[in-house]
Every structure is written in structure tokens, then in C-alpha cells.
Fold:
Amino acid sequence: MCILEAARAQNIEVGVYIESLCPDSKRFVNNQLYPVYNALKGAEPQILTINLVPFGNAKMTFVSNSTQHPRLTYTCQHQAQECDGNIIQSCAVIKYDIDRSLGLTNCMFASNDWKTPWKSGAECAQKLGLDFKELSACANSLEGLALQYFMAGQTEALDPKENWIPWVTINGQHSDAMQKLAESNLLKLVCDSYQHSDAMQKLAESNLLKLVCDSYQGSPKPKPCESV
Structure:
């Protein structure tokens, strides 16, 4: 029981694996992730940590020939502009805190120009008081490419592998059913709780606030959790 009590007190980390031009990523960030983040960010105790990973189904390859050094290139599911958006959002994730990086990502998805990430990125950066020149410099440099390589590594490390974008992972989840399972098969509970499941993915896309609040068993619960 000591192990279970310690796990129950942890913050909830929501891992969100997205693509910048994916309609389902747009819907999830605009309708679930950002509203839930705003509902919980000022609440006490702080229970939510978000790991935003803009990469999705992109593919990275090393290209080389006899006259050039090997170079890293990548292609994206929704064409080249999605790669641009992924890099811009990756630069924001690294350079800013989650409030600003998620704010920029949400704004870009909400923009009428969301399929033109250079335009939506510039407009949203101005709206949020961010330095788009800094983001552009990052996105147009080896730094931006290296960040995509980093995001690719996080995506590739998923177990089970993602087969849907947005892909959502939750750490530290708990429910009455989990408590019952802990008393009969703790290993299965630990493995199920700290990895992805189809049921968790479905609930995350329909009611992320409920999933986060159900997963957290600290006391007291934040006020927004009282209504779910």
C-alpha cells in the first residue's frame, strides 16, 4: 500500500503528441487540452504537468552523397508546411514555459490561418507578446532541426507505439477500479497506469478534465475537479 499511496500523490503528467496541421490535434488542443490547462493552472494544489511533443507521424532520414556531409531531413504527413509548424512549436516548447508555449500552440490552431504556420505563428506571437524573430531564428537553423530530432526521439520511444494523432499518455492515474486491481494484481496496475491504453485515449479526447481529476488522488482536489 505504501507504493500505491506514493504513486497517488504524484502530479499528473499529460503527454500530448501532435502535428501542427492535423485537424484532430487542432480539435484536441483547442477543445480539451488548453481549456483544461487554464482551468487547473491557478488551482491549488498544482496537479498538472504537460509535455507537448510536436512531431506526430513525421519521418526523419539522413541523406548523404559523395560530395556532401550527411544531413538530416524530414517529411510530414500533411506536407511541408506542417514540418514548419512542428518546428515553430518545438522551438516554443524549448524556449518558453508551458504557459507561453501551449498558449502559442493553441492560438496557432485556433487561427483562421492555422494551415499557414508562419503566418499564424507570427500573428499569435504578437498577440501573446512573444518574440517571433527569436522563434524564426530557431526554426530556420540547425537548432530547430535538432529539436525535431529530439521530438522524434520522444515519439519513437512511446510504448505502445502511437497509431493515432493526437496521442495522449497519462502518469499516475487512479480510480476505484484501479484501487481494486492494486489489491489483486499490482504489477498490472503499475504497467497499465504508467502507459497508454485505448480507454485512456478515448477519455482524454472526450473529457480530459475528468481523466486528470480521476487520476489525481491527493488532498484536497483542485476546485475545477469538484464538478466532474
